[in-house]
Amino acid sequence: MAVQPILKYPHPLLKKMAHHVDALDAAVHTLVQDLLDTMQAGPGSVGVAAPQIGVGLRVCVVDVSNSRHGKDNNHGLLCMVNPEIISRSGLAVMREGCMSVPDYTGDVERATEITVRFLDSRSGQQREVAASGFEAVAIQHEMDHLDGLLFLDRIISVSTGLFRRKQYR
Amino acid sequence: MPHRELTHYAVSVVGADRPGIVAGVTGALFKLGCNIADSSCAMLAGEFAMILIVSHRKPFTKANLIEELKPVCERMAMTLSVRHLPLGEEDRKETAGEICQITVYGADQPGIVYRVTNTLATHQINIMDLQTKLAGTEQEPVYIMLLEAVLPDGLAPEEVERLLNGLKQELQVEISVRTVTPVEL
């Protein structure tokens, strides 16, 4: 259980498809705890995916409850194993930053409402969550990491969509 | 951090659009061993415009750069301008305030850009990006301006909307101000 270093692009693992998790074993529980520790250590971070800490498995954590953008509309801490989006609707642009792409932010268009199905590592049960707003964006961003995608893969234009990052508190 | 071992130049090239402009200019820069630190190209009406910040390890002079670029630009009838950047000027200075996107559109008339940007300048609002387009039809042209600006500390986006409200009435254009809040994921 520890804060792990965040891999930065161009580390090749960030561009690889992560593997399906077959069983909730001790290694997965340790991984989830590492993701939580790492997320909580990142300034203002609301999610981390396993590939970001060097593990090519389909596991990510999201918690927007402490963020001012998501505090009024969230499901608290989500520890997601093998998450899949089963429905999506709406579109909105948000300027996203990512710990794996420091110094820049980019305008990315994402669904505003999603339903995500995943194995909850804490309960060991399959769960479906209907998320909207910032929480939906955060889930989609973390799930992109599981497919080897960065927000850079989704920006529409470098001239109008990529920005030097401001300092976060 | 200023790059003390590098010298930087701002290069701009403008001319009637045709295939091969970018390849011609960047080919000449590559041959010289220049690095393109930043660039932006745009099609403005039928003109193709390139702005580049290029760097080269010292010693390197503006004359070296012009000598190589001039024949390329003359061949394609492009205007060329080169400016040496003093040390430190190549680094973008980050400002602290909130970021806003301001959209202005309405029936075309002279002075839209000036009137809006002058109001922003009066209140120390720094424009980071500005793009305009003439849309609509020849009979009824619609002018569209999209700009991104950083507000000085203490100035709220609602206040910017209020500051531009007078112009909205006067020019009979639509003006909207939207806060852009970067999120950390």
Continuous helix count of chain B: 4
Radius of gyration of chain A: 15 Å
**How far is it from the N-terminal to the C-terminal residue of chain B, by CA?**
27 Å
**Percentage of residues in strands of chain B:** 35-45%
Strand count, sense and barrel status of the largest sheet of chain A are: 5 strands, antiparallel
Mean pLDDT of chain A: 92
Characterization of this structure:
By secondary structure, chain A is α+β, with helices and mostly antiparallel strands. Chain A contains three helices and eight strands; from the N terminus they run αβββββββααβ. In chain A, strands 1-2-3-6-7 form a five-stranded antiparallel beta sheet. In chain A, β4 (92-98) and β5 (101-110) form a beta hairpin. The longest helix of chain A has 16 residues, at 26-41. Chain A is globular, with a radius of gyration of 15 Å. In chain A, 39% of the residues are buried. Chain B is an alpha+beta fold. In chain B, the strands form two sheets. In chain B, strands 2-3-1-4 form a four-stranded antiparallel beta sheet, with helices on one face. A four-stranded antiparallel beta sheet of chain B has the order 6-7-5-8, with helices on one face. The longest helix of chain B is centred in the C-terminal third of the chain and has 15 residues, at 157-171. The radius of gyration of chain B is 20 Å and the shape is flat. The model of chain B has no long low-confidence stretch (mean pLDDT 91). Chain A binds chain B through residues 42-47, 67, 69, 94-99, 105, 134, 137-138, 141-142, 151, 159-160, 163-168, and chain B through 40, 42, 92, 94, 96, 99, 129, 131, 180-185. β4 (92-98) of chain A pairs parallel with β9 (183-184) of chain B.
